[in-house]
Write a structure and sequence with these properties.
Elements lengths: L1 E5 L4 H10 L4 E5 L3 H8 L4 E3 L13 E4 L12 H23 L7 E7 L10 E2 L9 H13 L8 E7 L1 E3 L5 H10 L4 E3 L5 E2 L1 E3 H13 L5 E5 L5 E2 H12 L5 E3 L1 H8 L4 H4 L3 E2 L2 H5 L9 H8 L3
Parallel strand pairs: 1-2, 1-4, 2-3, 4-5, 5-7, 6-15, 7-12, 8-11, 9-14
Antiparallel strand pairs: 10-13
Protein name: Glycoside hydrolase, family GHnc
GO molecular function, one term: hydrolase activity
Keywords: Hydrolase
Length: 298
């Protein structure tokens, strides 16, 4: 396929290109063309913005992974607006371009997150679970609604409700692992809240699966089939790293440090990939023990 990819220099996008550059050709949107070329290689076409593409008719698929990191900064009103606009605006621009084509790309995969569901406690969450109305739901619901605005008589639309992506290459795991590296690791809050995660390898495999399976439409949870509590995750991480798991960081400390965004960590979601497994996708690393041992095996 000839694929247009936004967010191509990010954790997921760059890994997808690395794994599938021999199978597909890629055009990436990036404000810093030289930096993107340096990271992705000369085989990837890099352009500065969507507006500079005259037509999308040359693309077989569009994958939209762009967006301001959601947990890197406190959720001030300004930061919330930046998080929303960075997702909504580019998605709307892509949809407008897709709908302006007589022969548009056959498939549009657009990012979302399990934040769509809001806090759900220990309830088992599938794609059919009713969401709770809070910031992350409002963010993802509008994001998905904009993506679904593509003309679905011509373009298949899939939204990717992604969990916490685990990899040695950075992202959330790097931050979670740091206290363990320093010998001060432990549980967060009560430790009973669930973490819905997915290994980066399975994440990019799932994107490829959804890209090619024409029967897959709508929202899909991109999480491993075995979500775990923070207590189980912390102990498994400590064991994989060969470090102790002795401490507990109380909820009030995290609320002071992170503000409203601490809810994502302290409340959590027990999300399972019901539609993805029903469609026939097979995880290579379905358990957190397998995933973390693979990451820290060296």
């Amino acid at each position: 396929m000839n694929i247009l990819l936004t967010g191509g220099t990010g954790l997921i996008g760059s890994e997808f290109i690395r794994q599938f550059s021999d199978k597909h050709s890629f055009t990436v949107i990036s404000r810093d063309i030289a930096k993107a070329k340096d990271k992705l290689g000369d085989s990837v076409d890099v352009i500065e913005n969507i507006a500079s593409i005259k037509t999308f008719e040359n693309f077989d698929a569009v994958i939209n992974l762009a967006g301001e990191p959601i947990a890197d900064k406190r959720w001030t009103d300004t930061q919330k607006k930046r998080i929303c606009d960075s997702r909504w605006d580019i998605t709307a621009e892509l949809v407008s371009k897709i709908n302006s084509c007589e022969t548009p790309p056959s498939v549009f995969l657009s990012g979302s997150a399990i934040g769509y569901y809001g806090s759900q406690g220990d309830r088992l969450v599938t794609e059919e679970t009713s969401p709770r109305d809070e910031f992350t739901h409002d963010l993802c619901a509008k994001w998905e609604a904009i993506a679904q605005g593509a003309d679905q008589t011509k373009t298949r639309v899939v939204t990717l409700r992604t969990g916490v992506v685990l990899t040695e290459k950075g992202g959330a795991l790097g931050k979670m692992a740091l206290p363990f590296k320093l010998g001060a690791g432990g549980t967060l809050g009560t430790g009973t809240q669930y973490l819905a995660w997915i290994h980066l390898r399975d994440m990019v495999r799932a994107i490829s699966f959804l890209l090619e399976d024409s029967a897959c439409t709508g929202a899909f949870n991109l999480t491993a089939p075995e979500p775990v509590t923070n207590k189980v995750f912390s102990k498994t991480l400590a064991k994989a790293m060969g470090r102790p798991c002795l401490f507990n960081l109380p909820s009030f400390v995290m609320k002071i440090a992170m503000g409203e965004s601490s809810k994502m960590i302290l409340e959590g979601q027990r999300v399972i990939p019901q539609k993805l497994t029903a469609a026939g996708f097979k995880f290579e690393l379905p358990s957190v023990e397998e995933a973390l041992n693979e990451i820290y095996s060296d």
